[in-house]
C-alpha cells in the first residue's frame, strides 16, 4: 500500500516533482539551500499542494515507499509504425475524441497547442499561441487540460485523447519526469468532473494528427 508522497516545489530539478521513494526525494533536495517540499499520506492532497492548494495536512518526512497507484485514466500505446492513425482512430468513433497537437520554438521561447474535440459529427477547435517558458510536451498538456473544460461533468460517454508522443503519464505513475504538477492538475480535473478517459499514444504520428485537425478545420469553413 502506498502511503508516502513527497512533493518538491523547489529543488535540483527544473520543475515541481513528486516521489514515493524517500531516497529519490532526498536526492533532489540534499544540498539545495532554498528547497521547498512537503510530505503527504495520500495522492489527492499531494496533487492539491502541487497545483496550489497548500492548506492540507502535513506530516513528518520519515517513511520510505516505492511505486504509486494508477492515475484515473486508461493508457494505450502504439509503437512507431505499429499501426496507422486512421485505423486506430476508427476504433473510437463512438467516443468523444480529443486530438492534440502542439509545438515549441526554443529559439523564440514560445509554443502553441491545437486541439480538436469531436463528438460524432460535431467539432470544437481550441488553440493557444505564444505559450512561454515551456516545452513541447507541456504545451500539449495545457491543451488537454483546457479541452476538458468543454466536456460536461459526469459525462456518460467514454473520452479518448489522441497524442503522438509520450507526455509523461507513465512516468508520473512512478513520479519521474518534469511534468508532475501538470499531470496532477489533469488528474484533479478528471476526478472532479467524474470523466472516463482513455489516453491513446500513437507514437510517431504527430503529422497525421495535425493533418487530421487541419482537415476538419478546413471542412468546417465550407
Automatic annotation (TrEMBL):
<dbReference type="GO" id="GO:0003676">
    <property type="term" value="F:nucleic acid binding"/>
</dbReference>
<dbReference type="InterPro" id="IPR037056">
    <property type="entry name" value="RNase_H1_N_sf"/>
</dbReference>
<feature type="domain" description="Ribonuclease H1 N-terminal">
    <location>
        <begin position="5"/>
        <end position="47"/>
    </location>
</feature>
<dbReference type="InterPro" id="IPR011320">
    <property type="entry name" value="RNase_H1_N"/>
</dbReference>
<dbReference type="InterPro" id="IPR036397">
    <property type="entry name" value="RNaseH_sf"/>
</dbReference>
<protein>
    <recommendedName>
        <fullName>Ribonuclease H1 N-terminal domain-containing protein</fullName>
    </recommendedName>
</protein>
<dbReference type="Pfam" id="PF01693">
    <property type="entry name" value="Cauli_VI"/>
</dbReference>
<dbReference type="InterPro" id="IPR009027">
    <property type="entry name" value="Ribosomal_bL9/RNase_H1_N"/>
</dbReference>
